Amino acid sequence: MPNQAIDLNPVDYIVPGAVGEPGKRVFYLQARKGHRLITVVCEKEHVVALSLATQRLLLALVDADAGAGAVAEADPTTMSMDLEYPLEPLFRVGRMNLGYDEISKRLVIIAYESLEEGDESTPSVVRLWVTPAQMRAFSIRGQQVVAAGRQTCAMCGQPIDPAGHFCPRRNGHRT
After folding, report:
1. The CATH number, out of the four listed (3.30.2450, 2.40.50, 3.30.1330, 3.40.50), of the domain defined by the range 5-170
2. Quick one: how far is CA 149 from the chain centroid?
């Protein structure tokens, strides 16, 4: 795919999602502005990190800026939090950044394309400008999507497959 730089400023909505059976899910980040729908494939770790970073950033904004009070009025139950089909991702995300623009009072998600090792080309990038309320809903939904996967072992922290789990901390005994 040729190098692209896409800005959705501001987004109408943004949503994390996953498709597939637990343990074999594919994670997506999707955003829309008007008729333009952007979908990228990401890792579960991206969704977790973005959800947690969003919570920390929003708390810092509320403490530092009374104008960020819109965070408190976010109601994720009133926002559409489903992926739109057909899923046609632009690229697989290699790296994500989260920032805040004080002028527009919006959070900015920057997703960079993952390139093959040795590929010297410039990665495609998507920048999504999101309100604090939208990101609060995104964070809550992201945590729900991740939690809907496999349970984790309390002993070793590894995922438990439906067929069972070999826990190294239990000295080879199955749980």
Report:
1. 3.30.2450
2. 15
For 61-103, write each residue's pLDDT tens digit.
Answer: 887 765 444 444 445 444 567 899 989 999 999 999 999 998 9
**What is the H or E stretch that residue 107 is in?**
strand 106-113
Give the whole-angstrom CA distance, residue 110 versus residue 95: 8
Pull the structure tokens for residue 33.
């502005």
Amino acid (one-letter) located at 49: A
What is the tens place of the pLDDT at every residue in 3-59?
889 999 999 999 999 999 888 899 999 999 999 999 999 999 999 999 999 999 988
How far is 160 from 175, CA to CA, in rounded Å?
A: 9
**Mind spelling out the 3-state secondary structure of 32-44?**
EECCEEEEEEECH
Q: How does strand 13-19 pair with strand 106-113?
A: unpaired
Contact criterion met (CB below 8 Å) for 98 and 106:
no
Using an 8 Å Cβ cutoff, are 99 and 108 in contact? Answer: yes
